[in-house]
């Protein structure tokens, strides 16, 4: 069975999200900052009348922040609870079509730590490996509840 993933960059790494979760990709838009919220939440944007929180995946993954956010992209996804969230990423690469057989399970333990459950697999390509992310697990239940109150 073939699966389609939207691939994107965060720093030097390439990640992928199942295309069925993606609502849209848009250019960077300045956000409205929210007080007393996690530092990886950039703020909110108005997307066609709907308030959408924007998550900075560089900060969420404990990486150095963007040197120039103007070049970043926003991937808007729909979570299982039908809420939308935007992920701020360096750049969107392409839509990748792969077979289920080309996706391996992620390593169970990396560096003695249990692997994050938001990494659902590893796509092996000829020149690189791409981590597939399960968007519904990128945020904890508590984080989703906090964002739903915005």
Description:
The chain has helices at 57-60, 135-138, 141-148, and strands at residues 2-10, 13-18, 22-27, 41-47, 50-56, 73-78, 84-89, 91-99, 103-104, 109-110, 113-114, 119-124, 129-133. It has 150 residues and is mostly beta strands. The chain has a single domain, classed as CheA-289, Domain 4 (OB fold (Dihydrolipoamide Acetyltransferase, E2P)), CATH 2.40.50.180. The strands form three sheets. It has a six-stranded mixed β-sheet with strand order 8-1-2-13-12-9. The protein is globular and about 45 Å long. The mean pLDDT is 88.
Helix percent reads 10-25%
* SSE order, one letter for each helix or strand: EEEEEHEEEEEEEEHH
Proportion of residues in extended strands: over 45%
Q: Find the structural class using helix and strand composition.
A: mainly beta
Dominant shape: globular
Largest sheet: 6 strands, mixed
Instruction: Give the total of domains.
Output: 1
Give the C-level CATH assignment: Mainly Beta
Task: Please identify the oligomeric state.
Answer: single chain
CATH architecture title: Beta Barrel
Distance between the termini: 39 Å
Mean pLDDT: 88
Number of helices: 3
CATH superfamily: CheA-289, Domain 4
CATH fold call = OB fold (Dihydrolipoamide Acetyltransferase, E2P)
Low-pLDDT runs: none
What is the total tally of β strands? 13
Spatial strand order of the main sheet: 8-1-2-13-12-9
Radius of gyration: 15 Å
């Amino acid at each position: 069975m073939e699966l389609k993933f939207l691939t994107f960059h965060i720093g030097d790494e390439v990640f992928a999200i199942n295309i069925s979760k993606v609502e849209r990709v848009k250019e960077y838009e300045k956000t409205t900052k929210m007080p007393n919220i996690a530092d990886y939440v950039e703020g909110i944007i108005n997307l066609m009348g709907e308030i959408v929180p924007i998550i900075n995946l560089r900060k969420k993954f404990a990486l150095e922040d963007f040197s120039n956010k103007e070049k970043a992209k926003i991937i808007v996804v729909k979570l299982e609870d039908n809420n939308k969230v935007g992920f701020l990423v360096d750049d969107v690469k392409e839509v990748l079509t792969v077979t289920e057989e080309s996706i391996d399970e992620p390593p169970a333990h990396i560096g003695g730590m249990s692997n994050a459950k938001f990494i659902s697999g590893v796509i092996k390509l000829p020149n690189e490996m791409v981590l597939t992310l399960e968007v519904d697990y990128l945020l904890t239940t508590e984080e989703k509840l906090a964002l739903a109150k915005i």
